[in-house]
Amino acid sequence: xxxxxxxxxxxxxxxxxxxxxxxxxxxxxxxxxxxxxxxxxxxxxxxxxxxxxxxxxxxxxxxxxxx
Length: 67
Fold this sequence. Notes:
Elements: E1 3-5, E2 12-14, H1 15-19, H2 26-41, H3 59-63
């Protein structure tokens, strides 16, 4: 079996995962996903008429919404 090396911790992981575009092992990828989930939980995403959601991450972005 062919292995690839994780860019975060240096452990080996299955090369098929790298072929899918993931350059981290499952453990490091899971940690990054949890950090991103926690960051997005602090953001709000107002819905716009005929538009998609837009994450509002700062007061400056909140003041510029709809312009």
